[in-house]
Amino acid sequence: MKDFPGTPGTFTGLFLRISQFLFAAGAIASMATADGFTNYTAFCYLIASMGLQVIWCLGLAFLDAYALSKKKLLRNPILVSLFVVGDWVTATLSLAAACSSAGIVVLYDRDLGYCKLLGCRKFQISVFLAFMSWLLIEISSLIMFWLLAAG
Amino acid sequence: MKDFPGTPGTFTGLFLRISQFLFAAGAIASMATADGFTNYTAFCYLIASMGLQVIWCLGLAFLDAYALSKKKLLRNPILVSLFVVGDWVTATLSLAAACSSAGIVVLYDRDLGYCKLLGCRKFQISVFLAFMSWLLIEISSLIMFWLLAAG
């Protein structure tokens, strides 16, 4: 397996995982403190999906930190297969959650103009952070898939 | 490059492209015949995204059919790179469009109960077809990426 930035057990890999964790945690915090988010299925789904991402990224960040401290590279094909599946599922769920929430925010903000009355700032911030988190986990996902395929 | 189902220039590849085209065209038809879809940004975006997918899949279906008729396998790395980027972009846009529209349909159907008054059947069918189309192009996308990475 080739060695390039973002592979598990490297500093860039650890940096990617911590960034994903921070953005996902930020998205949850912003959504959970917004008024009336429980009335919307999509916003609850965003919290669930970002919650899954927080657990996944934190777990992998610890694994990366452990590998770095022991100076090991995590290149076992079974382990990489697990990372590929996990990253792909988490990335797909994150994008789905971010987009379904973004659909509602755009509906309320642009199409119906409710945001002037209700205030959607926290929903918008949460959706933005969820998109950032997705972007980073998508990068990780593509790196893992490449690692697995390139053998 | 290894030979497995779904690679460009094979019958399964052609079948995948035609299925993606049909589902995307069905999603457009169902959305375009629904009343008042132009009032919703997400629904207009669904049509635009599925329109892009229709053009992309139809082009690749013709290319696959041509390769099959000439008994050629399309394995040029530059061509496969182009397929990877195109499939990845189309798949991501399709999922984003399907999810943002699904967010609004779920909001109207489950959260607000407007669907009993307005009728959302065509929106629901369109979103379902868009998801099916995304699922198939995601499969193509993963196959292409694997082909490129495995060299």
Automatic annotation (TrEMBL), chains A, B:
Membrane topology qualifier: Multi-pass membrane protein
InterPro entries named among the record's database cross-references: CASP_dom, CASPL-5
Domain of life from the UniProt record: Eukaryota
One Pfam family from the record: CASP_dom
Keywords assigned by UniProt, alphabetized: Cell membrane, Membrane, Transmembrane, Transmembrane helix
Membrane spanning residue stretches: 12-34, 40-66, 78-108, 128-149
Sequence ranges assigned to domain Casparian strip membrane protein in this UniProt record: 7-136
Main subcellular location: membrane
UniProt GO cellular component terms: plasma membrane
Subcellular location: Cell membrane
Record-stated family: Belongs to the Casparian strip membrane proteins (CASP) family.
Quaternary data: Homodimer and heterodimers.
The protein's name: CASP-like protein
Organism, as annotated: Aristolochia fimbriata
